[in-house]
Write a structure and sequence with these properties.
Blueprint (H helix, E strand, L loop, with lengths): L8 H9 L4 H9 L7 E4 L5 H12 L3 E6 L3 H13 L4 E5 L5 H15 L4 E4 L16 H31 L7 E5 L12 H21 L6 E6 L11 H9 L11 H12 L10 E4 L9
Parallel strand pairs: 1-2, 1-4, 2-3, 4-5, 5-6, 6-7
The protein binds NADP nicotinamide-adenine-dinucleotide phosphate.
């Protein structure tokens, strides 16, 4: 852990109860209060979240790299961000847990002094791929807590931070970008929980887009198709065959940077008259043909 800055959220909570650790005070003094905008990217240690972090760094954002358990991978993301000339800090937090979300936001504000962009990217496939007639409540709760409840309440809290920051003219603009999936509308009978969580994330986008429009805070949704990451490793062979047989008009799997670049394009602020908008990054999967 470089510089001891990726504090354990549980430890941070315990520290907060006792008035905060000396480290936290030092952190507050050391923190960079950057002039550049700051993006909080959840699940940024690997895959799509890592690519988003790199592309946001290229777009001029300092990045808070959140991860769940994989510190080494998070450090690699930080290294990749620094290679393109960017700044990144890392923080573990399980976004399905309220106390961890609070701690993640505290850490971000203590470290950078501001948040300008929230990217709700962290997500999981069902721990067990089970038929909808057999899946368990445990499976359902794990997926829904991570993919939907976490982003919902994180967005709620970050929206309040954005509103204050904008009122105080601490930041020029703010936005939320949600990484959903083609599974928001394409039903899979062996991972119903995942599809339901992503359909919910689409409605989350719509509801927050409506609510935050009066404050000038747009909320966008990116719907990736099949992207080459750890998440699809177990079914990659089948997906490759389906794609080469014409599942998608663009006959290749997506790459994490396909999504990263889409996020960066939106984050640059080029869509100020759009909110609640859905961007398909799916090789054309959503097109119907006759
Ligand atoms: P991935 O390679 O499996 O990476 C998942 C990332 O999420 C990791 O950084 C992981 O952290 C983090 N994470 C998992 N649970 C977390 C939690 N409870 N709290 C905080 N972070 C957590 O997945 P990916 O393919 O990049 O997927 C990223 C997003 O894109 C997900 O929302 C996924 O549903 C969506 N998506 C993916 C595809 C695809 O084909 N790959 C398609 C459509 C949508 P650790 O490294 O610490 O485990």
């Amino acid at each position: 852990m470089r510089g001891g800055r990726a504090l354990d959220p549980a430890q941070r909570l315990a520290d907060d109860a006792t008035g905060g650790p000396p480290e936290a005070a030092a952190l507050a003094l050391r923190c960079t209060m950057v002039d550049t905008p700051v993006a909080l990217v959840t699940g940024a240690s690997r895959g799509i979240g890592r690519a988003i972090s790199i592309e946001l760094a290229r777009a001029g954002y300092a990045v808070l790299v959140n991860y769940n358990t994989n510190l080494d991978a998070a450090e690699e993301t930080r290294g990749e961000v620094e290679k393109v000339g960017g700044t990144a800090e890392i923080c573990p937090a399980d976004i399905s847990q309220a106390a961890h979300r609070d701690s993640l936001l505290d850490f971000t504000l203590e470290t950078f002094g501001r948040i300008d962009l929230l990217v709700n990217n962290a997500g999981i496939a069902p721990p067990r791929r089970l038929d909808v007639l057999e899946t368990t409540e445990e499976n359902f709760d794990r997926v829904l807590d991570t993919n939907l409840k976490g982003p919902f309440f994180l967005t709620q809290r970050v929206a309040q931070i954005f509103i204050n920051e904008l009122e105080e003219q601490k930041i020029a603009r703010a936005a939320v970008i949600n990484i959903s999936s083609i599974s928001a509308y394409a039903a899979s009978v062996n991972r119903a929980e995942y599809c339901i969580s992503k359909a919910g994330l689409s409605m989350l986008t719509a509801v927050f887009a409506l609510r935050l429009a009066e404050y000038g805070i747009p909320v966008y949704e990116i719907r990736p198709g099949i992207i080459e990451t750890d998440m699809i490793e177990k079914v990659r062979g089948r997906y490759e065959r389906q794609v080469s047989n014409g599942l998608t008009p663009i006959r290749r799997l997506g790459r994490p940077e396909d999504v990263g670049r889409a996020v960066a394009a939106i984050a640059r602020g080029y869509f100020p008259f759009s909110t609640g908008e859905v961007f398909n990054v799916d090789g054309g999967f959503h097109l119907r043909a006759l």
